[in-house]
Every structure is written in C-alpha cells, then in structure tokens.
C-alpha cells in the first residue's frame, strides 16, 4: 500500500488562485510549438491518444461540483497532482464537471465553475500533467431529449476558447450522452451533436476533441463511427468508450474494430472488479487496466465522485500492474521482497469409476512478478470439499493440491491460501481465495 497520506506535500509551493489564473491566461505565449498534442498523426496511424509529451495517456478522474467540496479541495491542491504524477506514475487528470447531473438549484453555473477549472488547468500546467476537461452528465440526450444541448453548449462556449492554446488541455465534450447506441445515427441527434462538435472545433481548432464517450463496449461501435466518418476532423478528434457491459461483454472486439478502421481511441472510464454489475473482466484479464495495456489503449479509471482516497489505484491497480508485468513505471518501484499469491486456479479431475477430485494450482510470486521457489504455502479447501495442506513451491513458484476423491453432485467450495513462508520474503497475512 502506497503511503498517500504520508506523502510530504509541504515540499510543494501552493499558489494563490489569483496567481494561477494569471498563469492560465498567459499560456497562449507558452510552448506554442506543442500545440498539436496528439493530433498530427493521421487517422490511419493514430491508434490511441497520447499527451503533450508523446506518452500514452494514463489517468484518473477528479471531480468538480457544488455539492462535492471535498473533491473540489482535492482538485485545487497542487500536491495531489504531483502525487499522481510522481507516485502513481499517471500523466493525466480527467476533470469532470458533474453539476449538470444535479437539479438546477444544486449546481454551479458555468460562470461559477470557471474559476475552479482555472485552478485545475494551472495545476496541470505546473505539474506537466495532461488535463481532459469533461462536461459530465449521463444519458442527457437519450431518446432524443435535450437536443439543443443548451447547458453543454453554454459550458463549451466559455471553456473552448479559454484554453485553446494550452497544449496540455483536451476537450471531452460530453459523457455518455445516450445509452441507446442507435440514437447517434438518428438524423436529429446527429445534426445536433455535430453542431456542438463544430462549435467547439471552431473555438479551438488545434485542441484534441474526444467524442462519443460511449457507455458500453457491448455494441458494434464502429457502425456508429462510420456514420460520422466524413463529418469530423480526425486529425484532432479521438473516440472515447467506457469499458462497461457486464457479463455479456467478455471481449474487446468492438474496440479493436474501431482501431482497425484507423481511429484514435481512448477508454475514459473503467472501474474495478466487484464495484458494479456492469463491470467485468475483458479478454480474460481480471482488471481492465491489463486489457487496455494489452490493447495499447490510453485510459482513465473511475471511482465514486466524492472519493479522493486513491485506494483503488494504490491497492489494486499498481500492485496488479507490477505483479502481472504491465507496470508502465520504473521497475525499481516494485517490492521484490514481497511474497504474493499470483493466481489460484481450480479444476475437477476424474479419478475413475465415476469418482472425481478437485485440484488447486497456486502460483507464488514476488512483488515484481517473479516466481518464488521453495516457499511453504499453507492453505485449505472449504465448503463442500475440505482439507488442509502445506506444500513447498517448485522452481516455477507453483504448487498443486488435491482433495480426496468423491462421488455425487458437486457443490460450491473454495480454496484459500492462509499463509506463505519463504526466506527473504514477507507475506502480508491476508487470506487469498478462489471459489468454484
């Protein structure tokens, strides 16, 4: 677990809001040569979105909202941006203005939220982080409603020209505007959506625009995109999708179809295992970040609007990336003296004459993903099948344990690793189990 709360924030200079605003307003004369962030590659070559430094975007959301004072305070603290950059090794913040989701009397106006966005853009500039500014509502245009995009249009009329010359800024013009993928191709929807897009494009011709922000990958998204094929400036436009869909979505086929068409894509939301029923493993990877790294896609994770703990990043994302070999940071960041359970797999084997037994295979790794040989693994079967075991890992860090043979109907059981002991390594003592 990373020491977020112990990070020495006092080492960073916290600027007054007025000073930050001045910096933001001065940006048109700064770094002009970097204006074309992520945009110069042709559609045929650009498969995912990169930031101002040319690196694939890897980010996390920060939320602004009148009712979310804790999140606003977090967003305006420069040290949090530095922490995300230096400790979490992320290079992007997706700044979501979520007030449009609330009733009108519970939200800021566009004029009221602008000073807070100014501070965040200044924080991005001072830390060198990319910032995706996102107008954030859900299904706002679903079923053909609100096609005037009134509040969204008012937001972008103020925001689009304001940061048009900042190479770190990217515009995601809406969030999941409809849950019905067929809406996108309806004449009235498409016309209104393109009007919004063109207004933002005209106000900021060289800013990268993220479009669609599809609510699922469980639909042939390439069919929607082809309907807009000749209407968009693809040099400065990327397609966003959210890695949602539940148990019926197990592959990234609809994402790779867009990539095959030569489009630049980014996943602007994925969530962690067990959070919601619409979150599932994709392409066989338990954590969606591994899927995205395998695809070579830019990504931003997701968490509750008022959650500023970064627990998921520190306790799930980074350990999983280090353990499974897709960590994008320095390899020296991992703890090679940690003993961890890399995987538990369970199979049922026939033993003859209608009998069978359960077989559990356990892989023990160090914190950098390398196998640990000669580790004593203690574990037990629980539930329908029971039994305690202690076995030494082989040279590949693996052990296989069997239950007694049984006959009849198989019911639910699990295998649980209760302890790991190995010279020079430490196990955190947390039980790890797999249910069959």
Automatic annotation (TrEMBL):
Residues 86-274 form the Glycoside hydrolase family domain. The keyword Hydrolase applies. It comes from the Bacteria. Coiled coil: none annotated. Gene3D superfamilies: Glycosidases. One of its GO terms (biological process) is polysaccharide catabolic process. InterPro entries: GH, Glyco_hydro_5. The keyword Hydrolase applies. Keywords: Glycosidase, Hydrolase. One of its GO terms (molecular function) is hydrolase activity, hydrolyzing O-glycosyl compounds. Belongs to the glycosyl hydrolase 5 (cellulase A) family. This is Endoglucanase.
């Amino acid at each position: 677990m990373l020491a977020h709360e112990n990070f020495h924030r006092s080492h960073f200079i916290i600027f007054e809001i007025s000073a930050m605003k001045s910096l933001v307003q001065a940006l048109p004369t700064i770094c002009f040569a970097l204006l074309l962030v992520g945009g110069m590659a042709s559609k045929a070559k650009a498969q995912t979105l990169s930031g101002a430094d040319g690196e694939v975007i890897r980010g996390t959301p920060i939320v602004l909202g009148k009712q979310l004072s804790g999140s606003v305070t977090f967003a305006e603290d420069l040290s949090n941006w530095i922490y995300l950059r230096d400790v979490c090794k992320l290079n992007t913040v997706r700044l979501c203005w979520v007030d449009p989701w609330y009733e009108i009397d519970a939200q800021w106006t566009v004029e009221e939220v602008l000073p807070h966005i100014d501070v965040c853009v200044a924080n991005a500039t001072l830390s060198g982080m990319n910032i995706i500014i996102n107008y954030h509502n859900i299904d706002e245009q679903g079923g053909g409603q609100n096609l005037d995009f009134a509040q969204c249009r008012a937001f972008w009329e103020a925001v689009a020209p304001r940061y048009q010359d900042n190479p770190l800024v990217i515009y995601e013009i809406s969030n999941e505007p409809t849950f019905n993928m067929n809406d996108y191709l309806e004449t009235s929807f498409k016309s209104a959506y393109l009007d919004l897009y063109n207004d933002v494009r005209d106000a900021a011709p060289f800013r990268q625009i993220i479009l669609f922000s599809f609510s699922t990958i469980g639909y042939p998204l390439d069919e929607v995109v082809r309907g807009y094929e000749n209407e968009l400036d693809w040099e400065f436009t990327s397609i966003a999708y959210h890695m949602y869909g539940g148990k019926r979505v197990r592959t990234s086929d609809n994402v790779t179809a867009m990539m095959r068409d030569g489009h630049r894509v980014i996943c602007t939301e994925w969530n962690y295992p067990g959070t919601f029923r619409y979150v599932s493993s994709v392409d066989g990877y338990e954590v969606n970040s591994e899927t995205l790294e395998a695809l070579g896609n830019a990504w931003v994770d997701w968490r509750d609007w008022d959650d500023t703990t970064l627990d998921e990043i520190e306790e799930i994302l980074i350990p999983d990336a280090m353990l499974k070999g897709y960590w994008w940071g320095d390899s020296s960041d991992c703890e090679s003296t940690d003993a961890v359970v890399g995987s538990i797999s369970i199979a049922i084997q026939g033993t003859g004459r209608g009998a069978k037994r359960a077989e559990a295979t356990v892989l023990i790794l160090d914190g950098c993903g390398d196998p640990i040989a000669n580790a004593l693994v203690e574990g037990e079967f629980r539930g329908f099948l029971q039994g305690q075991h202690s076995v030494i890992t082989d040279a590949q860090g693996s052990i296989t344990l069997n239950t007694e043979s049984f006959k009849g109907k198989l019911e639910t059981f699990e295998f649980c690793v209760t302890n790991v002991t190995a010279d020079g390594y430490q196990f955190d003592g947390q039980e790890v189990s797999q249910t069959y």
